[in-house]
């Protein structure tokens, strides 16, 4: 059984959310999706992404 990745790349987040990588990159840069940079590359903690989605589903505007 493959262990679930805790840290996602922009491509993985885009795939997870079923949106384009360009849109995902913009949302992370704008702070609308929680993310952090390692060097020049953005990363997203999967647990933070799931929490963010939960808040959006409950009508919280972030």
TrEMBL record:
It comes from the Bacteria. It holds the Pfam family HTH_17. Residues 8-55 form the Helix-turn-helix domain. Gene3D superfamilies: 3.90.105.50. InterPro entries: DNA-bd_dom_put_sf, HTH_17, SinI_DNA-bd, Tn1545/Tn916_Xis. This is Helix-turn-helix domain-containing protein.
């Amino acid at each position: 059984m493959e262990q679930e990745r805790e840290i996602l790349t922009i491509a993985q987040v885009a795939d997870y959310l079923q949106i384009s990588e360009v849109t995902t990159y913009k949302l992370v840069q704008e702070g609308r999706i929680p993310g952090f940079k390692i060097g020049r590359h953005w990363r997203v903690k999967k647990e933070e992404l799931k929490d963010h989605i939960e808040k959006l589903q409950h009508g919280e505007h972030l």
